[in-house]
Design goal:
The structure holds 2 protein chains of 2 kinds. By secondary structure, chain A is mainly alpha-helical. Chain A is built from 11 helices and no strands. Helix content of chain B is 34%, strand content 29%. In chain B, strand 4 (61-66) and strand 5 (69-70) form a beta hairpin. The chains are: A mainly alpha, B alpha/beta. Residues 17, 22, 40, 42-48, 195 of chain B line the site of adenosine-5'-triphosphate. Adenosine-5'-triphosphate is lined by residues 17, 22, 40, 42-48, 195 of chain B.
């Protein structure tokens, strides 16, 4: 329908995003009817997302013709942004920005570096950026899930954690069950996409490769490669972030900092 | 009679949060085998004071001496083994009763033998519970297990935060009697928070009364409660 109304591709794109935004708006209204208020957050996220992707799209057009090092530069910028975004899931945990950024850098950065070096990811910016950004985006989601679960688990088990401390457990031992649970929970989406590969979703990259004329079977295999890399980088990210974040909720004297009420943070001994 | 040694001594111990003093310059001594009851109305800072004694919270100023050693020089794990704690509500870890009793010793790489665990359970009147799962224990049973679990660490000081206030009347007197026996038998030095003055009179040797985080009366049970 729309493609008959608009012949210019840019106009078509804008019309399509208007329709997509309208759809989101309807869903938000439905939520409002169930007393879930997301209007503000969703509206801001929508506008922000659109502006960002258009801006980046325009920059990409220029950069794709640029020298090799711009790829690494772009990926680093993406990692920083991903860290800043997913740290919001650890509200009230001091140092969570550093933890998020380090974990995502460690998880996705190492996979991108090794796989590029091995030739699994092509060094051409046109393939490095899309594949790399997928790894980073998924690492970001996993990190957000892990931190969110960790935070709520700790807040819900203050009694158990302090009981363990009072029995002489170290801070690490006292939250081990919650660290493990947040790690496992955060991996559910990555595991499910590996499981449902090709059945529930035929992801974008494969579609793109088919459109651009790759052999279908190679496109399919490469899609598996990407999902496997996503899984590896996400798990690595979550492993690092749950490990790092757990030391941020205690003082140097093994006192729990993250508690319900008063902004979640009590006043305890200064961190060493 | 020679004076017993001082086991626990607080020195101008304070804790403030957002410019509010929850615990205000408390100086008190507890000698070996004494039971100090901390009484006072709700919100007077009893729990806040107790949590400073095993350093679950950090004092804003002042400190605690454990057998004349400043407790900030003792590693927290070691301090908390020596100064055990039982809270109002028992938080048992998922698993069996035996696993719960093993928790403390295990943290130091020690094994609590089945015999010792059985002895602890006999001591709290739950002899047949060793291999039970903790899921379906009653409130009173859970509290008894948490007492046995604290004792498995062989603490020299025991902190009790209203250990019977969450229990119904029947298990209340049972748990109180049990604690009374254990404290005497093991010659434990004890600091016990309670809002029940009659309970303090039954169990304690000394009483400290708090209001707004400050000591308003302190002395033997006779001096404070029967004056
Ligand atoms: N983390 C905290 N942040 C702010 N205020 C706190 C905090 N912990 C305790 N308080 C306040 O400190 C005061 C003393 O609390 P505390 O729990 O020590 O009282 P309590 O004497 O044990 O009372 P109760 O008999 O009801 O248990 C209360 O007014 C409480 O609201
Ligand atoms: Mg209290």
């Amino acid at each position: 329908m729309l493609n008959r109304l608009f012949t210019d591709q840019l106009q078509l794109g804008l019309a399509q995003s208007a329709v997509a935004a309208l759809l989101v708006f309807v869903v938000v209204l439905l939520g409002r009817w169930r007393k879930v208020h997301l209007e503000r957050e969703v509206a801001i996220a929508l506008v922000r997302g659109l502006v960002q992707i258009i801006a980046v799209g325009s920059v990409l057009v220029v950069l794709l013709r640029g020298p090799q090092w711009t790829g690494a530069f772009l990926l680093a910028a993406m990692i920083l942004a991903a860290g800043a975004i997913s740290t919001k899931r650890a509200k009230g945990i001091p140092g969570s920005l550093l933890v998020s950024t380090c974990s995502i850098a460690c998880g996705s950065g190492s996979v991108i570096a090794i796989m590029t070096w091995l030739g699994v990811i092509d060094t051409a910016i046109t393939s490095l950026i899309p594949v790399g950004s997928m790894l980073i985006a998924n690492a970001m989601n996993t990190n957000g899930l892990a931190l969110n679960r960790f935070r709520s688990d700790v807040l819900a088990h203050v009694g158990e954690i302090e009981t363990a401390l009072a029995l002489g457990a170290s801070s690490k031992q006292s939250i081990a069950p919650y660290v493990q649970a947040s790690f496992e929970t955060s991996l559910i989406p990555a595991i499910d996409s590996l499981r449902s590969l090709g059945i529930v979703w035929i992801p974008g990259l494969m579609a793109g490769m088919l459109l651009s004329g790759s052999r279908p079977i190679y496109a399919a295999i490469y899609q598996f490669v990407v999902i496997a890399m996503i899984f590896a980088s996400s798990s690595l990210t979550s492993l690092v972030s749950t490990m790092l974040i757990s030391s941020h909720v205690f003082t140097s004297a093994d006192q729990l900092l993250l508690r319900p009420g008063n902004g979640e943070i009590g006043t305890q001994a200064k961190k060493a | 009679m020679p004076e017993k040694s001082i086991v626990l001594r607080t020195d101008l111990l304070s804790r403030s949060i957002q410019n509010r003093k929850l615990v205000d310059d408390i100086t008190v001594e507890v000698r070996a085998g004494e039971v100090l009851a901390v009484v006072g109305s709700s919100g007077s800072g009893k729990s806040s004071f107790l949590r400073l004694l095993n350093r679950l919270d950090e004092p804003s100023s002042g400190t605690v001496f454990l057998e004349d050693i400043d407790y900030r020089t003792i590693p927290p794990c070691e301090l908390r083994r020596k100064v055990g704690m039982v809270t109002q509500r028992a938080f048992l870890f998922p698993g069996t009763v035996y696993e719960n009793l093993q928790f403390g010793p295990k943290q130091r790489g020690e094994e609590l033998s089945e015999n010792l665990a059985q002895e602890l359970l006999d001591g709290v009147g739950l002899s047949s519970y060793l291999m039970r799962d903790v899921t379906h224990l009653s409130g009173g049973e859970a509290q008894r297990i948490s007492i046995a679990r604290a004792l498995a660490n062989t603490p020299s000081v025991l902190l009790l935060d209203e250990p019977t206030s969450a229990l119904d009347d029947e298990s209340k007197s049972g748990v109180e009697g049990l604690l009374h026996d254990i404290i005497r038998k093991r010659r434990l030095t004890c600091v016990m928070v309670t809002h029940d003055v009659a309970q303090a009179a039954r169990m304690a040797t000394h009483v400290m009364m708090l209001a707004d985080g400050r000591v308003i009366k302190e002395g033997t049970v006779k001096e404070v409660l029967h004056a």
